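Risk mitigation, structural track. In case the binding assays with zinc ion fail to produce interpretable data, a predicted complex structure has been prepared as a fallback.
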Amino acid sequence: MTNPQYTCLECGYDMHDRQGGDPCPECNTPLDIRKDDPVANRKTLISLIVMILAIVVMPFAGTLSALLTLYAHHTVRKRHSLISEYRQSSKTRSRRRLIQYLTYIWFILIIIMLIVEQSWPGVFNWW
Ligand SMILES: [Zn+2]
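Fallback model:
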């Protein structure tokens, strides 16, 4: 049985025969044997769903979409300061990265929509 705490956070290499701080033989990342942060795990999942929702509702409800994006981003940032006691599982980290990408996409979409709105006024009635 493999303890998830003894797998490399970056590449998933099994490091059960190593000690905390030992570098991963595959990618040289030091082994982090702290427990996964259970709150961050749940919160990043919620934020990811909220962020997807923000993109979906954007054409119909611009203000709501902006609020959802702010919420998703705020949650992700707040957890960064609580990094000491727990480690951030690879799931949490990849979700966080995904939320970041979605935020960029959200911004690009907003800009595209503003340009379209300028060219064809009244296409989206969300202000
Ligand atoms: Zn590794």
